[in-house]
């Protein structure tokens, strides 16, 4: 039995809507993957090991810190800049402090500027890979281990870079489930003690 023109139009329309929905759903993870692989938009690369080669040429790395408007932590780089040889593994620290009377969980976003450096700035280990929970009054120093890929000196844009800025922005997230349960138990205990 053949479909009439009206039913064919409905089937085509539903197919288009489903296809567009699937593409919209896949666009965010695809864009994230694309940025991580290419360094597009200042997204840094990730590696488990350092560079194979260290050059005599140096580059200045600047460190920047900010936080989302409602994030109660204090957050700053321990040192504002360092000069390292291209390919050398660098280690920098950021400091976070929770001045409140309750635990606060945070996660950071990051990028590098200029954006052309994103494909050459590689992190080996970073506090930004996981969420952070600071207890009331806790102050921590959080490390980031990185290198600048020696291929930067061969890149048409990268070879003119003398400085890269690594920026982090911390924002508050929900406490992990276990922390939230502990806080609820503490609140219940203190209410019981007050009564």
UniProtKB/TrEMBL annotation:
InterPro entries: CtaG/Cox11_dom_sf, Cyt_c_oxidase_assmbl_CtaG. GO terms for molecular function: copper ion binding. One of its GO terms (cellular component) is plasma membrane. Residues 1-6 are cytoplasmic. Its main location: membrane. The keyword Transmembrane helix applies. Residues 28-195 are periplasmic. It is a single-pass type II membrane protein. Keywords: Cell inner membrane, Cell membrane, Copper, Membrane, Signal-anchor, Transmembrane, Transmembrane helix. GO terms for biological process: respiratory chain complex IV assembly. It is found in: Cell inner membrane. It comes from the Bacteria. HAMAP family: CtaG (MF_00155). Belongs to the COX11/CtaG family. This is Cytochrome c oxidase assembly protein CtaG.
